Amino acid sequence: MMRTSHIDLAVIGAGPAGLAAAVEAKHLGVKDLVVFERDERPGGILRQCIHAGFGLEKFNEELTGPEYANRYIKMAESWGIDISLDTTVLDIDKNRTLTVVSEQGGLRQVACKSVILAMGCRERPRGALGIPGTRPAGVFTAGHAQRLINVEGYMPGRTVVILGSGDIGLIMARRLTLEGAQVKAVAEILPYASGLIRNVVQCLNDFAIPLLLRHTVAEIHGDRRVEGVTLVQVDDRWNPVEGTEQFIECDTLLLSVGLIPENELSKAAGVMIDPKTGGAYVSDYFESGVEGLFSCGNVLHVNDVVDNVSLEGESAAYGAFRRIKGLPAESSVISIEGDETIGQIVPQRITGLRDVTFHLRVKRPMKKFILQVGDRFEKKYPYARPSEMIWVKVPGDIFRDVRGSIIVHCEETS
User: Fold this and answer.
1) CA atoms within 13 A on the CB side of 310
2) pLDDT tens digit sequence for 314-346
3) For the structural domain made of 125-257, what CATH number should be given?
């Protein structure tokens, strides 16, 4: 029979969300908690993000990714938090019992009062895109190439084309250039960049790297190794425009075409997934539809800035702490829905009993507009882009007499 242990709180993932959640849970008074991490070291994706730009909101100073992660690793050590490395969580059931396996501990079960899901996200691979052509060496996701250069010390190639203008792709355009490679172009199928504008400026414009909007890769050429790609312009329906094909010689193609929240464990536990975010439907306490299961960070929705990920981890820890201590449950009676102007919104349901911060993205770029939360709240903004998440804090008392649903809408103004 499989060994079973009992703990108050399990945090799955020792990235920025998981570490922040564990530290905050300890600070609140949760004594018996374990962080499960399948990698050999804590820190998550931050370990390979050696560029600066982290910590501006959380620590009021500019840090690199490893420096930011180290801050939380040191905090976890000071609190005596148990981080179980090289340990994979295989399954979660609805009763919050984890099946975990590791070389040292073998296969065992862990029953928990609360579980915080902080597994992060993964990159969308070539197979999800259906790009025609051969299957030569030299096709990498941007994050994989980042790990090769920054952690393993290998150069993926010398002449590079990048498909997609996500933040990792933009940062890798700069990184490859600094390492001596030639980045010939960044192709983006959308009519606007899908990464932060600061990264477009600092990583492309400052290095004179072309950004080709409304372009995609029509074909990959090469047998044993990539020899080049054919780019093509697309119309408003993303169909190739005949006669716009151009061949670019290169030995490497990087894919920066989106991130997918890592929710296989969540689905196994019966957590309902929001198709707009790719993560769980959660309350303003970051609790999913399964009692005692909380979600935060990039497994909930893909964030732009790591500081926001840490804040979500702390909020999830507070919700988990309430469950562990058996505090009165506050049912979420108000459903939050975005209309056609909203790409995604979190949380999707609220109690209406406390202030709530909504995290949302617009569906298309906007200039001056008013963000409306039903007919109860509105706020003016000078602009918005789908690549930049909007955080808006709304007083809870305006929802006290509301039942049913509230629609969130963006109204452009002159």
Assistant:
1) 23
2) 999 999 999 999 886 667 779 999 999 999 999
3) 3.50.50.60
